[in-house]
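Q: What does the assembled structure look like for these inputs?
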Amino acid sequence: KSVAVGEVEAPESHIVFGRRYVRPRRIVLLEANARGEKERTPSWAFHSFLAIHQQTTESVVVHSIPFYSISSRERVNASWEERKGRGWIIARSFHRRLQPLRLDRARASRYWSSSKVFEFEWCERIRICCRAMSGRGDEEASRLDQLKKTAAATVSEIGSLTVNDKGEVWFAELSEMWPGQAFTIKVKEVLFHEKSKYQDVLVFSSYEYGNVLVLDGVIQCTDRDEYSYQEMITHLPLCSLESPAKKVLVIGGGDGGVLREITRHETIETIEICELDEMVPEVAKKYFPKMAVGFDDERVKCHFMDGFKFLKEVDAGTYDAIIVDSSDPVGPAASLFQKPFFDLVHRALKDTGIVCTQAESVWLHLDIIQELHKLCLEVFRDPAKNSGSVNYAYCTIPTYPSGQIGFMLSSKSNIDFRSPKQKLSENSSALLKYYSPEIHGASFVLPQFAKKCLDC
Amino acid sequence: KSVAVGEVEAPESHIVFGRRYVRPRRIVLLEANARGEKERTPSWAFHSFLAIHQQTTESVVVHSIPFYSISSRERVNASWEERKGRGWIIARSFHRRLQPLRLDRARASRYWSSSKVFEFEWCERIRICCRAMSGRGDEEASRLDQLKKTAAATVSEIGSLTVNDKGEVWFAELSEMWPGQAFTIKVKEVLFHEKSKYQDVLVFSSYEYGNVLVLDGVIQCTDRDEYSYQEMITHLPLCSLESPAKKVLVIGGGDGGVLREITRHETIETIEICELDEMVPEVAKKYFPKMAVGFDDERVKCHFMDGFKFLKEVDAGTYDAIIVDSSDPVGPAASLFQKPFFDLVHRALKDTGIVCTQAESVWLHLDIIQELHKLCLEVFRDPAKNSGSVNYAYCTIPTYPSGQIGFMLSSKSNIDFRSPKQKLSENSSALLKYYSPEIHGASFVLPQFAKKCLDC
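A:
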């Protein structure tokens, strides 16, 4: 897959590098090798590289020596000297992406800074890219203008999207729940945006996380990492039960992911789900088929209503487990973090039943977690009988604020949540990507700062 | 601390709510109570609230009922009906911040969306805020203009900062190491920005994370969460040693945080640190005094040079532990992820010595971790002697990409890294905010997707 050192014609176009346009005079392929990281550029190649560039004033160099090797850095610096600090170098970088490095006068004898990343792998593709980019400079500029206009039209009606000067659309997760910080994702396409009776529902496809579901501006799940949350909020309670679960209730969880995980337990007889917003399952079935597969199981029965009202009508002692897969305690899910709700949950659970509820991140919301912990102790502990258990566990998930999320587990019985009693079948276990009996135990071990707060 | 229901004069000014200016006709304090969350607004207050607003066309209402209670939501909706969908409501929100909710025609009978968060706690302060904001509308607009200009002047020379239309400055952590996503932090003030011989060095103060150190556009540490990384990269190796550490080497770690943690081990006799970039400790001492305190210990000796070159000159079998506190494998730290470097580390360690190196996040860089794991096995495993150990652990940290970071631990001996052998003194333990012997063990338990990759 080696490509010889050589030259290709420079395209009659602008190419966007980092934040500005460059019109390259010519493009030089110094060396291209499909497995470049492991190999060294022969010295003759390096010398011809220097020789060519002594006379070049503005050029783009495709340079496949691994960016991260010391020798390559020294070489690039040397080449910089020879080229009087003008032009560009594109080096192969760690992820086999091409990285253009700008070298300009201001950085003489200093280090370089990286800018935009090109998303193709092999040097041959430079040619394709150049062809795609070719055309008059004006055309190119008007194409970019068009891109920005199209993006801006989509963006103007969705507060959490912005379009930058490269025509890229980005989603920013701003919320009063985590002021002064925001995780941002580059948007490929907005797939769905409507206001339901209860909340703003947005689905977009992203470059790195697949499809993303956003409710009231807050990321609920992405194709790439949803499983960690769904597996943990489900298997932590179901595997902690003394005897296998038969009857389970989900409150919230309209994306279907928790249902999917529950169905992996073969002992389950009925699964009820009570979701407030009918639009969420509709959207999930269309844009997140791998998650929404949970709805297809014949043991599943859906109720579209308020979880609070639903629980009032349920017979006491009905469920082995209740999973509260809620959004944050602002907006529609607010009541699911309060005492009247937990009183109803307590009533609806069997004596040995377990409730597991979404319980925020220790890094951001220790105050909420502390209050929830206190509340659950109040509801589930019975000092007279010396019974009741409450415990907090967590998992990591990159697209949730601070990169993690926790779960509050409670029961009227004395249950040691830390050690799983139930095991998934071999077939089911093989499908899991996050949960294991070992992770189950480890997820209850909190960092010191959190442990101190939740022990008191 | 209760404030009676009443009215205050509307200021002669614009107030910025969310994305637009509002000139309120009057401000109504419906109820203000310092511990509002636990209490209910008396119904008379609610009724007078409705009564007042039946005649109001454009108004700001300070409404202290907790935003997240169902009852309050119903009330707010009811009040919306009465007010024909015009005006604003400010509700107390979860974090005792005030949240303005815009209600407009477009959202008739729908839910509301949240916008800007006000950063004061009690309703009394609304008055102060109004006073601060008072003045002619023109003055207010020119003040905002000035703010934007000042911010833009700072921002133009730092690629990773942007200023939005509210005059807020935000830092975005863009990198080819995590394309298509970026963590962003709201900037209070840029404290330092210079290019050292090796990299771009930026320090800013933030609203939520204290001071932030950024090298080549990538966050290295923040006042708020640095301890989790520093404690784990230090105590994981030092507590895994069979006998207490006496001689330790740090490579990188110019912020001093790892030094601080090492000094908590009372058995330590000498600590050497080899940092490439002298500017980093200088900046750390000035802007991160709590971290840089490590440099003050008399057992610490600094070398400002390339870690690679330093290790070449070191006697074989010198160190009990080597801690490689590097930045990512692009830029100056690239060589610290390659075999020649690990060969030198192997040589410099005692037979029972341990090296612990920064090893990225399983969610983003499983490929890098796999290669590093293979590399460490190659260097540290001796099949003939059936000796050598390599293991991967991780911790959570909100301001690192994906919210976590890992560590690769290696030794020529057979060491069970998972169970700590050394204990910190009681005094030292009391100072720790993340590490504990229990966290030590749990940090090696990987999610299934990562375990599968690192077992093979």
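The longest strand of chain A covers residues 181-195.
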